[in-house]
Design goal:
Layout lengths: L2 H6 L41 E5 L6 H14 L8 E6 L3 H10 L7 E4 L4 H5 L7 H4 L2 H14 L16 E5 L5 E6 L9 H13 L2
Parallel strand pairs: 1-2, 2-3
Antiparallel strand pairs: 1-4, 4-5
Length: 204
């Protein structure tokens, strides 16, 4: 990490600004078809349901907590029929170094989307200051450090203003759970996503 890369993570990415981009599509909601892109085709080629999380920048403690929660579920043999996917907008090198620091990807498929085409397709653009600077985010940041040992890591690549979100998608490509994060600390809830996917599968 250098001072330059750390400071650059605070700059809004060009050509977007911190204002809502009017051309950005709305994030998918339960009951609608999930967006499909070359990097993240939906339905998934494996013909499996998916739990997909779009991370904040590598180095963010909230991204770390979200990823560790997803990885923990991915190693549960009871969920071998579900595809767990994490999308990073940090560079390939920064993403790989971050994953190595966390002990590896486990059974999570990691997609690097440095150009943020996939983020954009799922309606995830920039967030405003109150997304980061709010009481709930600061309280959760403190709790993660005290109780789970998750602290801020150096940021080699990525933007602190990039929005995050998580979704569960059926094997047919229909969203059954999830949405964009309303605040920086929001993430996880994957147990509920698994439950809904299992429930949908049992009814088919």
């Amino acid at each position: 990490m250098t001072l330059t890369t750390e400071l650059s993570s605070w700059l809004p990415p060009s050509p977007l600004t911190l204002l809502k981009d009017p051309s950005l599509p709305s994030p998918p909601t339960p009951g609608t078809s999930a967006p499909s892109t070359p990097s993240l085709p939906i339905p998934h080629p494996s013909n499996q349901p998916q739990i997909i999380t779009f991370l904040r920048h590598c180095g963010c403690p909230f991204a770390e907590k979200t990823f560790l929660s997803l990885r923990s579920l991915s190693t549960n043999s009871s969920y071998d029929h579900i595809k767990f996917i994490a999308v990073s907008h940090s560079s390939l090198l920064a993403t790989n170094e971050w994953l190595e620091a966390l002990g590896g990807a486990g059974d999570v498929e990691v997609i690097v989307d440095e150009g943020r085409e996939v983020y954009r397709a799922w309606g995830l653009g920039n967030v405003g200051p109150w997304h980061l600077f709010n009481r709930a985010a600061f309280e959760e940041l403190g709790r993660l450090g005290r109780e789970e040992g998750i602290k801020v890591r150096g940021t080699e690549s990525g933007s602190r203003w990039q929005g995050a979100g998580s979704w569960a998608v059926s094997k047919e490509g229909v969203v059954v759970w999830g949405g964009s994060a309303g605040s920086a600390e929001e993430g996880g809830g994957f147990e509920e996503a698994v439950r809904l996917l299992e429930e949908r599968g049992s009814n088919e």
